[in-house]
Amino acid sequence: MFVYADNAATTKIRPAALQKYVEISEQFFGNPSSLHTAGQRAKEELERCRAKVASLLGCNTREIYFTSGGSESDNQAIESAAIAGAKKGKKRIVSTAIEHHAVLHTLNKLQKEGFEIVLLPVGENGIVSVADAEKAINSNTCLVSVMLANNEIGSIQPVAEIGKLCRERGVLLHTDAVQAVGHMPVDVKELSCDYLALSAHKFGGPRGVGALYVKTGAPLFNLIEGGAQERGKRAGTENLPAIAAMAEALGEACENLPSYMRRVSALRDKLIENLSKIPHCALNGDREKRLCGNVSFCFEGIEGESLLLLLDDKGICASSGSACTSGSLDPSHVLLAIGRVHDVAHGSLRLSLSEDTTEEEIDYLSEEIPKVVEYLRSISPVWRDLQEGRRSYIL
Ligand SMILES: *Cc1c(COP(=O)(O)O)cnc(C)c1O
Question: Does 249 reside within a domain?
Fold first, then answer.
């Protein structure tokens, strides 16, 4: 059996989006900046896509900027708010310890440039406290950046409440909604955000395309200089086939959202229940306030990487949710932030489901994962120490 359970890393493109990509490539091949008919037809299609994305997020068409994806959108939002803040002498940015690296590394860079960066802690459930956010905002604060849903542990953050606070205090709010869009209801007005980042390949669109919502009046500066595309805010010939495929994928995802969420969360709950029976394990993230497709566990006494390799042999594509892949042995900053100690954080497993996930696949995962965990424990010196009392269990 082959089970793709790494949809938080990327999704398979939806057939309708792929078809759209081909259709637009063939029929709207002109450059939207060209004055001739082919160009103008492409320009009209581009604006239709913008209107569609805007209506699905509950904003005005002019508030949507197309980008190369989530990372670029996060970078541009944060840099823009920082530049505007610095001009007013406001150089404090409040964010959380569990953000994606697209946010955290941008904040690191700003810190080196003299910004004061405050990373709020999260509770054991992986959720930031609104009261902590309130306390952290002061008169020097130019931006608050809180992700809507975490990519590793699926926890959903109280962005709407934090948004209200930010509005009252006159502070800009950015939300990295890359994991949320297409997987839960997202409305920029309900969130009271000034910036929202999304990425097509996380909801069945193609790679390398995304969007940034920028509320009218919020500062926006270029990351990429050149032509006057995207109202002068993002140079480069628009990737119209990808943008159209993204709009198509988002339309389909939003249309099927209630039934998708009902079906996939039932599969998620069944998988969580089954895997919870493994001794000395813990679910990561909140049991209720979590993405409908996210299952994340830590298993004591094993290495996440070995687990992934053995699961791959069984046809299961999963993720450790940790940053070890780049050769660094640091465990995931998200798992550390929810209080998992290093050893436990190394034994993590993330399974992220999609609308294509079946009951049979959940049964297969529920059968194979406990076997692999048991096998790895049987050859683990750490596990032997735990079993023989030379070390005490944490989970
Ligand atoms: C995937 C992801 C990103 C980066 O998006 P890209 O389109 O791959 O650049 C940013 N934030 C979160 C939460 C993500 O899951």
Answer: yes
